[in-house]
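Figure caption, in words: inputs first, then the predicted bound structure.
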Amino acid sequence: MTTSDWPLELVVADTAALTAEIRSLTLKSIDGGPLPAFSAGAHLLFQVELGDGGPSPGTPEASRPGERCYSLVNSTDQSGYYEIAVKLETAGSGGSRFMHALKPGDRIRATLPKNDFPLHRDQHEALLIAGGIGITPILSMTAELSEQGAAYRLHYASRSPETMAYQARITQLCGERRHLHFDYGDPSQGMPLAEVIGQPASNRHLYVCGPRPLLDAVIATARALQWASSHVHFELFGAPLSQTGDRPCRVVLQRSGMTLDVPAEKSILDAMIDAGIDPMFDCRRGECSVCAVRVLSGTPEHRDYALSDDDRDHENLMCVCVSRAREGELVLDA
Ligand code: FES
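Bound structure (FE2/S2 (inorganic) cluster present):
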């Protein structure tokens, strides 16, 4: 991405430790003026410097450029600042370390707000489920729903009260509409999903944001309860791409006449872009299916949330932004 891809230059106005691992950052425009509007559920993409834990913001030595996506936490009518919250991922590639090292006065570039996780337009009853740092877009949604006087319930899960961010604000905002769940490291003590989700109805919409296991479990439970997919909205937090045990794979692009050796830590989409191909993509998180490509041979390991069983089994599509080869080689119609 070029500088023009990062139209916002923001200054860190404040930071605060919300838990031992989560910091909030308040960001303002350089001149103190209003910032572009956003809707609840929106995010910004930030330009970060990735390193091995060494470089601090503003010290690009031993670092490489990267990008990280963070949801906007604050209320949509607060145009003077953006608030984000960042969980420190000690095993990550350095993006969260970079964000945690930012201090008041530091500058950072970002894209304009984008929303892949909006509230449904029509009046409805909202069921909001958040896990861990996945509370960030959900918090902005609860503020908007509260402002509208809409019917909603929030179920928010964390390991323990000490690891849960924004408890006081949520209690103040949501009152008895908020339900907190702590499993203390024991998954069997987790949120009782079937009971929490309940029966579908034409005016009920479910919103879930959190780590992949929570997302998978909520989506599977909602499907089992016969919820229509159009009423289940989700956003994944955490890297959908890398999984323990990932291996390099070989991808043959039949129409392009190219063979790519894709390293374990790289997506097929990024390998295609690096090879000079111009594939279609949007979310890069397996949520939109814009990057879907037909598989001519080989067995993909599907990691997207966008394709239907029919798309996968009969149309032979795979989302190359997140999915990989289950084993061996993939031949794609690309
Ligand atoms: S770019 Fe959205 S699913 Fe791949």
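Residues 281-284, 286-291, 304, 306, 319, 321 surround FE2/S2 (inorganic) cluster (CB under 6 Å).
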